[in-house]
Amino acid sequence: MQAEDRVRLLHMIEAMEAALGFVAGRQRADLDSDPMLLFALVRAIEVVGEAATKVSEEFRSKAPDIPWGPIVSMRNRLIHAYFDIDRDILWKTAIDELPTLLPRLQALIKSEG
Questions:
Q1: CB atoms within 10 A of CB 77
Q2: Cβ distance 51 to 18 under 8 Å?
Q3: Catalytic site includes residue 80
Q4: Rg (CA), the chain
Q5: Cα 62 from chain centroid?
Q6: With 49 labelled, which of 26, 42, 77, 102 sits at a CA distance of 20 to 30 A?
Q7: Does the active-site annotation cover 60?
Q8: Mean per-residue pLDDT over the chain, rounded
Q9: Which residues have a Cβ under 8 Å from the Cβ of 8 and sit 6 or more positions away?
Q10: Domain limits of the chain?
C-alpha cells in the first residue's frame, strides 16, 4: 500500500469514528432539532468522501468490496447540494452504512500494513 493511500484510509476511519460518536445515543429527530449535530455529521461524511477521492485507483481496484463510487457521490452531493440535504439519507448512512464500512476499512489497514 502506498503511504498516501494509508493516510487517506486513516482519514476515512477517523471521520467515520467521529460520525459514529456524534450519533451514538441520538435519534433521527435530533438532526432536525440540533443544527450542531447536523453540521458535524455532514462534515464527517464529507471528509470520508473527500479522502476516498484521494485513494489511488490502483488501491481501489484491490478493494472492490468497498463502495468507492457511492462514497464519493455522497461527498459530492453534500458539498454541491448543501442546501438540499436529505436528512433521512444522511441518518441512514450514519446508522446503517458506516458501522459496516468501518471494520472493512480497519481490516484493509491491518492486512496492508
A1: 18
A2: no
A3: yes
A4: 14
A5: 19
A6: 26
A7: no
A8: 94
A9: 51, 52, 54, 55
A10: 3-112
Each residue's pLDDT tens digit, 60-111: 999 999 999 999 999 999 999 878 899 999 999 999 999 999 999 999 988 8
Total residues found in the chain within this entry: 113
Catalytic residue among 43, 75, 77, 87: 75
- Claim: this prediction has a pTM higher than 0.90: yes
Give DSSP secondary structure letters for 63-104: -TTS-HHHHHHHHHHHHHTGGG--HHHHHHIIIIIHHHHHHH
Point out the catalytic residue in the list 6, 26, 28, 80: 80
Q: Cα-Cα-Cα-Cα dihedral of 40, 37, 73, 77, to 10°? A: -100
**Per-residue model confidence as pLDDT tens digits over 55-67:** 999 999 999 999 9
